[in-house]
Amino acid sequence: MDLSYILNHLGEEREHYFGAVSPPIIQSxxxxxRYVAHLREAMLQEFDHHLYTRGNNPTVAILRKKTAALEGxxxxxxxxxxxxxMATTLLGLVRQGDHVVCVQNxxxxxxxxxxxxxxxxxxxxxxVDATHLxxxxxxxxxxTSVLFLESPNTMTFGLxxxxxxxxxxxxxxxxxxxxxxxxxxxxxxxxxxxIDLVMHSxxxxxxxxxxxxxxxxxxxxxxxxxxxxxxxxxxxxxxSPSDAALVIRGLRTxxxxxxxxxxxxxxxxxxxxxxxxxxxxxxxxxxxxPQRDLARQQMSGTGGLFSILLHTTDQxxxxxxxxxxxxxxxxxxxxxxxxxxxxxxAVHNLPGRDNPPFPINLVRLYIGLEDPEYLWADLERxxxxxxxE
Length: 389
Ligand SMILES: *Cc1c(COP(=O)(O)O)cnc(C)c1O
Prior knowledge:
Elements: H1 3-8, H2 36-44, H3 58-71, E1 75-79, H4 82-93, E2 99-103, H5 108-117, E3 124-128, H6 133-139, E4 144-150, H7 162-171, E5 175-179, H8 184-187, E6 197-201, E7 215-219, H9 221-235, H10 241-252, H11 254-273, E8 278-282, H12 292-298, E9 305-310, H13 315-324, E10 329-330, E11 340-343, E12 362-366, H14 372-383
Parallel strand pairs: 2-3, 2-4, 4-5, 5-6, 10-11
Antiparallel strand pairs: 1-7, 6-7, 8-9, 9-12, 11-12
The structure holds pyridoxal-5'-phosphate (PLP).
């Protein structure tokens, strides 16, 4: 389907609402039916009917159609956060006694879901370095039912070979899931490579304006309906109609934003690679990226996110560096209009917490929509304060 058609027209039935170019926000919890026969039908199959907004809402339905089409899947569900997308999916798939194989160091709350939350209900997980398919295969148990991927990772950019993972999963009758937030549907379409369920934190690129927390789950009608019946209606994680309208608005400019972020990030990554305070740039499109070939094979681009390793491991020096920046906001998250910086050093030596699995001198940058020269001038000023080995 044509990308421009998806983003500008798909799912929008303008003849039903006065030709309005911007879709209406149907801020209604409830939908009235004229006949008992229709009520009976809707109650039997809530997945397909407008009965109550915990299940379906017309504004949210527009977003479902668009996101499913962006990932090339039959259907999608929208959730009130990316974390809810991961949790709702897994709770809709697993049963007591099941086992999940997951990539090492996934997004922190995905990790929490799999190693803290689900074990309470008899579901276990093994985390593997999925750079090598053999490691996934070695972790499989007779009760393994799900393979959970995240490619690229949003701190280290480690990839999995999605086609090979999908084939392995098929051979062992596993459902494959991927957190595709890092690439957006524009730069990687896992369903075309055989992955069953594709999730996003829509908070990031899909909405793109740092004003909504949301998530999406894309997949076959069969799997999406299973997740709807077993978990979505019980947990109630639907997004509000007004937030759905904001995400629809964000999607209008997705290709422009992705292209701009990608282009500026490449410029800044290049300059950082030549800076004496920087030991290494970790960016999937660079020549020295260890999985560069795989990245080019299964992705068509990489957005505004990348990491650097500084020469210094002095925590205070890193704090001073990030605090000295004026155009980069010090924050978690990414994918909005604004550039951000997140030093892993900030979460090292926190009282009562384990150190994160990432080196103390790793700093993640997100390049937003600003002029790259404006951003570089600021970075260069900040980096000049750091030791150069
Ligand atoms: C942010 C993020 C999430 C969680 O999404 P929320 O919308 O914050 O709940 C999940 N996975 C990745 C890779 C993320 O970056």
